Amino acid sequence: MDRPTHLIEYEGMLLGRYAHLSARGGQRPGGLERSAYILLSRIRMQGPMSLGQLSEAFGLDVSTLHRQTAAMRREGLVERIADPDGGMARKFRITAEGARRLDRQRADIIAGIDRVVEDWTAEEVAAFAAFLKRFNAGIERRSGRPWPRPADGPPADG
Question: Where is the HTH marR-type domain positioned along the sequence (predicted)?
Fold first, then answer.
């Protein structure tokens, strides 16, 4: 590992591994699968979304998203609604159960992060968050797929 980018790659791989383990919800009955957690988070931030919008946002095939959203519908996490803007495509909206489970899982993940950084200063935590945001924004800019972010505090339901 002769360049800093090599270390970023390696540490990013490890972070993805840990994030996957915590986002799976495996420790708690009723925990969300990683794909459901991410999809629910996006729908919450953006509001109701069609399969086409989800496909564009994630860069995934519609058939993949159809399977994922069908599983989420069976679990009562999302519901299909008419487009609130009057469009032809039906959209997915988070249900009360989906919001409850997303909030619970997010709280579990945040509690885990709090434990990891408990011996960090508030400034170190804020700096790390700022660097992660900047790194993610760079990825989003290069991919052409920006992710909406809350202005302040946790995102509202969509």
Answer: 1-137
